[in-house]
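Researcher: Last one for today. Full complex below.
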Amino acid sequence: MNFKRHGLIAGIALTATLALAACGSDNNEPTTSASGGASGGTGSDVACASGTLTSQGSSAQGNAMAEWAKAYQQKCSGAQVNYQATASGAGITAFQGGTADFAGSDSSLKAGDEQTKAAARCGGAPALNLPMVTGPIAIAYNLDGVKDLQLKPETIAKIFAGTVKTWDDAAIKADNPSATLPSTAILAVHRGDSSGTTENFTNYLTQTAPSVWTFGKDKVWKAPGGSGEQKSDGVAGAIKKTAGAIGYVEWSFAKTNALATAKVGNGAGEFTALTGEAAGKTIAGAKVTGTGDDLAMTIDYSTKEAGAYPIVLVTYEIVCSKGNAADKLALLKGFLGFTSSKDGQAQLDKLGYAPLPETVRAKVEASVKNLA
Amino acid sequence: MAVETPVRSLGVQDASQLKVKTLPNWSPWAVAVAAIVLSYVLINLTGAGGTVLTGVVAAALFVILMGVAAAVVEGGRSARNRMATVLIYGAFILALLPLVSVVWTLVTKGSDRLDGNFFNTSMNNIGPFDSNGGAYHAIIGTIEQAGIATLITVPLGILGAVYIVEYGRGFFANVIRFFVDVMTGIPSIVAGLFILSFWVFTITPLYSSDGFAHYSGFAAGLSLSVLMLPTVVRSSEEMLRLVPTALREGSYALGVPKWKTIISIVLPTAGPGIVTGVMLAVARACGETAPVLLVAGGASAINFNLFDGNQSSLSLFVYQQAGVASEFAPGRAWTAALTLVVLVLVLTVAAKLLARRNKLAR
Amino acid sequence: MLFRGTATAAGSMVLVIIAAIAIFLLVKAIPAINKDTENFLTYKDWFTDGDQPKFGVAATAFGTVLTAVIALLLAVPVALGIALCLSHYAHRRVATTLSFIIDLLAAVPSVVFGLWGRDYFYEPIANFSKWLHDVAGWIPIFGSNGPYGKSVLLGSVVLGIMILPIVTSLSREVFLQTPPENQEAALALGSTKWEMIRTAVIPYGRAGIIASVMLGLGRALGETIALALTLGSVFAVNFDLLGPGGVTIASNIASRFGEANEFGRSALIASGLVLFAITLVVNMAARAIVYRRREFVGGSA
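Model: Here's the assembly. Have a good evening.
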C-alpha cells in the first residue's frame, strides 16, 4: 500500500547518500579567516613530513593540540595529525598498547608499572615526558555583585572541604575586607569523573594548606559534600547556572563560559589575578626533575615569586625516546618540533594556556631532536 | 483490527430495558472544566500555588470525578472502563511532554549549524576559534559501523531466535534464552573493552603491516553488534512465538518442509515485529559512544576505510564536541545529535515500510 | 537439515559470544579483586590508585538497582498505556504517526538524553524536588535539604524516559498480534473495552510484555553516559531520592575509566562482572514468574 511513499523515501535516502559520498572535504584549503596565529610565523623552520600521527590523551591540552594540528597540517600538506582528547589515563594505555604514537598526559609517567610497560612498547628504550602545554586552573565562581573575589589557599581548602558553608563566612570576609558578601550558601562544584585537573588542584591544596586539606592528592575527589559534575564543561556549566557556586576548571573553560575567576593568594602574600603571564611566573619556578632527555617537572605551588598565579598544571607529551616506527619518526619529530618551537608556543596564549618558560622550551626542543 | 465497543447489556428482560443509561458525550468536557476549577480553588485556598501543581491535581481530579460520575450513572464496570480509557490516554500525554521537550531542544539548538558546510566537511584543520567544521567524517563512520554491525547481527540474531523457537528443545535452548537476557545488561563500555582486548590487541597486530595494534571502524562494528545481539534475538523470539500455530500446521499439512515453512510462512508473518526489534537495536547501536571511542579511537578527518585507521561516529562526535572549550562546539554537538536522530528515524521508517510490504498476517 | 544446522549454529554462536565475554570479565576481574585491600562487596568507595587500592561495589551496585527499579516503576505503566493507546484506542492513522514519534524517542542517543537532563530537565526536577520536600519531607526518602537537582530522582526519570520507547514499541507489536477472534469473543460476551483488553489482549501478550520489560531493564541497568551526566556521583547507600547523590556501576565505569591505569581498568571490569551477576539474578527472578504463566499463553511452538 505504501509503494509510493516507500519509493520516495528510498529516493531521498539514495540521493542523500550519493550527495554525502560525493563531496566531503577535510578543510585542506588554507583559510585566512579566523585562523589567528596559524598563518603567522615563518614557515621555513617547520620540518615537514608526510604520513599520519595517531595520538590521544589529556583533554586539558585538547584545544592546544587542535590548533597546532591545524597549523602544522596547513604548513605541511600530506601530514595528518590526529589527537583525540580522551583522558590522560586512556592516552597512556593507548600509548602502551601501541594504538597511539604519542600520548598527552596531565602527569608524568609513574615509576614502576607505568614506566615498565611504556618502555616495553618502545622496544626497551625509556619513554620520555616532554612538558608541552601549561595552563592555569581557574577558581571560577558565580556570585552576584562580587567582582574581585580574593581567596587565600586556606580559604579555598576550607570551601572545598565543606567547612566554610556560606559566602559571608568570617574566613572569606577576612580575605575580602572591602567586599559586601551575601549570606548565600556555597555550592562547591568538583569533578565527578577522575581527572588530572583534580589531581593538580588537590596537590596544590595539600602543599599550600596542609592543616585544612587532609584528603591528600588524587585524581578522584575525596572530600565529602559539594556537587560532582562530569568533565570540565559540566563543572563550568554548573557554576554558570547556580548562584553561589564555586569550582575549579581549566582557564579556557572559564573563558568560554564567561565565568568570574577569583584572585588567589600566593606564597609572596599577595592576591594575583589570573593571566597567562602570572601563571608563567609559577611555571618558570618549576624544577625539571627528569634526567637526560626526560623533562618531568615539579611545580612549587607556594612560590614566593611576586605576581605569580600559583594554581597551574603542566601537561606532557609522552613519546618513545627510541624505537619509534620508522615511517612515523620524521612526522613525530617534525610535529613535536613545531609545537616546542617559539612559533608553536606563541599560539598558546590566546587559547587560555601559558607558554613554556624559555629555558624549559629550549630543552624540550633539544629532546625532540634526539628522538629516534 | 479496530473493534467497536457495543452498547451493552446482558440479562435484558424487555425492550424498555435495552436502553441503558449512559453519560452524554459532552460529559468528559464538563468534568474536565469542573476538575480544573476545583483544583484551582483547592490549590489557591491551601496557598500552595503553582500552575504545574494545579495541572497535576486537576488531572487527578478528572480521573476520579470521571470514575465517580460513570459509577453513579452507568455502573461499576463502565466506570472502570472509562477510567482505564482516561488513564491510557493520560499515559500518552504524559509521555509526550518529555518527548516534545527533547525534540524541541534538539531542533532549536540543532538548527544553528544546519548548513551545507556541516554536512560536507570534517573536523580536520578546525581550531577552537573556527566557527565552521562539520560532521561528514562522523556520518560516514556511523553509517559504516552501524551497517557492518547490522550485517553481522541480524542474520545471527534472527537465526538464533529461530533456533530457540522452532528447533531448540529443553536445557540448551533455555540456557541460550537465559543468557541472552543477561547479555542485555552488559554496559556498552564493557562490550567495548571486550572487543578492545579480543580484536584490537589480539587480532589486528597479526595482519597489520607494522605489527602494532590498530583501531578500526570494523572493531567498532563488532562491539556494536555485541550490544545489538540480545535485543535482536529477544525481540525476534517473541515475535516468532506469536505466530499462530495454526499457520505452521496448515503449512505442514500441505507437505511443506519445516525449513521452508519457517522461511516463507513464519518469518514473513513475524516480519514487521522483527523489524521493530532490529531497528530498536540499530537505534541503540547508533547512539553508543564509549565502544566507538575505545576501539575506533575517534578521528577528526575523513576515513572511508572500515578496516584500518581511526574513525569517528555521530554520537562520539556529539560527546566530544559537548566537552570542548570552544564557543562553537555546542552548536556542532546539537546539530550532530539532530542529524543522528533524523538518520535513524529515516532508516526506521524505511525498514518498517519495507517489512509491511510483504506482510502475510494482518 | 541444513537450515536446522545453521539455526543451531547461530544459537550456539550466541552462547559462545556470551561465554567469551564472561570469561574475559572473569580473567580481568579476579586479579584486581585479589589486590583489593577492602571487602569488594561491602566497601562503598572507589579508590584504585596508590599502593593500597580500596574499592567496593556496595554503593554502585545499590545505586544501579535503585535507579533501574525507580525508572521501571515510572516507565512501565506509562509505556503499556501508550502501547495500548496505539494498538487499541487511537485511530489507526493517528496511531501510525504517533508510533513514529515514539520511535523517534528511541533514536535519540543517550548522550543527548544526558545533556538534556543535565541542562534542561534539571530545573523542573529541582523545583519538583523542593516542592516534594516541603509537602512530604517527613517521609525519609524525601528528607534531603538540598541542593536539589542532580539526584537519584533526576537520573531515574531520565532513565525512565529512555526505556519508554523500548517497552512501548515491543509491547505495541505484541498487542497488535492478539488474534481478532479472542477480542471479538470477549466483546461478544458483553465485555467493556477495558474488560476485553484485560481478559483477551493482556493475557495473550503477557510473555511478550515481560520480554519487553526485561529489555528495558537491561538497558536501564547498563545505561552509562546519560546517568554519568545526571547523577550526583556520591558513593553512599541510602534511599535519599532528592539530594545530591546516586552512582551506578556503569556510570562509575564511564567517569573513572578515562584516567584509570591498567589496574584501575581491571577493577572497573570487576564491577562490570557484578553488573553481569545482577542481571543474572534479576533474569532468574523474571524467568520464574514467566514460566508459571507460560501455560496460559496460547499459540506458539
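Chain A has 13 helices and 14 strands. The mean pLDDT of chain A is 85.
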